[in-house]
Amino acid sequence: MISTKGRYGLRVMIDLAQNDNGSYIPLKDIADRQEISKKYLEIIVKQMVEGGLIKGLSGKGGGYKLVKKPEKYTVGEILTLLEGTICSVACLADKNYDCPRRKKCETLPMWKEFDGIVHDYLYSKKLSELL
Amino acid sequence: MISTKGRYGLRVMIDLAQNDNGSYIPLKDIADRQEISKKYLEIIVKQMVEGGLIKGLSGKGGGYKLVKKPEKYTVGEILTLLEGTICSVACLADKNYDCPRRKKCETLPMWKEFDGIVHDYLYSKKLSELL
DNA sequence: CCTAAAACCTATTGACACAGTAGGAAATAG
DNA sequence: CTATTTCCTACTGTGTCAATAGGTTTTAGG
Fold first, then answer.
1. Distance of residue A46 Cα from the nearest chain B Cα, in angstroms
2. How far apart are the C-alpha atoms of B72 and B69, rounded to whole Å?
3. What is residue B44's predicted lDDT score, i.e. its pLDDT?
4. Which residues contact B86 (CB under 8 A, 6 or more apart)?
5. What span, in angstroms and rounded, lies between the C-alpha atoms of B8 and B13?
6. Residue B118 with chain A: CB contacts under 8 Å
7. Do B121 and A114 touch (CB under 8 A)?
8. Do B106 and A1 lie within an 8 Å CB cutoff?
9. Which of A64, A107, B23, B59 reaches 20 to 30 Å from B116, CA-CA?
10. How confident is the model at residue A99 (pLDDT cuts 50, 70, 90)?
11. Cα separation of B27 and B68, whole Å?
12. CB-based contacts of A82: which residues, under 8 Å, 6+ apart?
């Protein structure tokens, strides 16, 4: 289940794309438009800056802006950054984890196939398609 | 993310299908084969009995068995029973919930589409395909 | 009838993540 | 110099997850 972090973050990205006028957009405006606590958005937006998804500028006239064109972002990369990993099951989430039942597990192939479908959908969906 | 409840429950179903000899299969055997705590499985299996997925018989010679043929179960129905709901986002999980932003939400259509894909996959996958 | 084996039932717990809140420090344009 | 804005650290209540624990009831077979 995608948490508010991922959902809100995605909405911030859409908001930034829709209101892009070349300059930086203050978080307050986004919070007002999206009806989300600005304080909470700060946490999310910080992660997005650190992850290189957007850039921020402090001080008056500051705010946030996209670093790429909307069609260059995929929903998958946005959600992965905020959710940590988009995986249906824990066995696949941690790539280093080596399940002792890996060889005989009857469900693993299905989870892999399922994960592939989810992945394909989210990484083919562009931010620009949501505007 | 599918929790252990759903994953273990699915494995119990597979185990019951694979070891079906007409009589009841004790949980201890399943727990041993699947290498899962029997105590924990009790909780999961109880839910599956209440949900009508399997039936149990107390006493010596008792255990659990499927109520339908493996090809009559879908992975979706099994997971839905154990996970409560298989929904990617909270907005769609509770059918009675009426989001105030429903009309203007730019992300809702995508979540619906995504949910549809997930649903389609899980409800078309039969238990018998996992044996 | 007795006993062993099994399901069934209630309660508890430690750890962790989620969804925020709070208060201030640093940066920057005008 | 000041108002605005990001940036940073810390805290907190709530809930779920993943079990564990200890018992009671049911049932088949000797």
1. 21
2. 5
3. 98
4. B76, B79, B80, B118, B119, B122
5. 9
6. 117-118
7. yes
8. no
9. A107
10. confident
11. 19
12. A5, A6, A9, A44, A47, A48
For the question of whether the overall pTM of this predicted structure is more than 0.85, the answer is yes
Residue ranges of alpha helices (H) inside chain A are 4-18, 27-34, 38-50, 75-83, 90-93, 108-124
Q: What are phi and psi of A64, to 5 degrees?
A: -130, 155
Distances (CA, A) of A117 to A84, A90, A114, A121, B2: 18, 17, 5, 6, 15
Integer Cα distance of B75 and A112 in angstroms:
14
Cite residues whose beta carbon is less than 7 Å from strand C. Answer: A 3-5, 37, 39-40, 42-43, 57-62, 83; B 26-28, 42-43, 45-46, 49, 56-60, 62-64, 90
- Bases of chain C within 7 A of a CB of the protein: 4-11, 17-23, 26-30
How does DSSP assign A76-87, residue by residue?
HHHHHHHHS---
Q: What is the pLDDT of residues B75-98, one digit of tens each?
A: 999 999 999 999 999 999 987 787
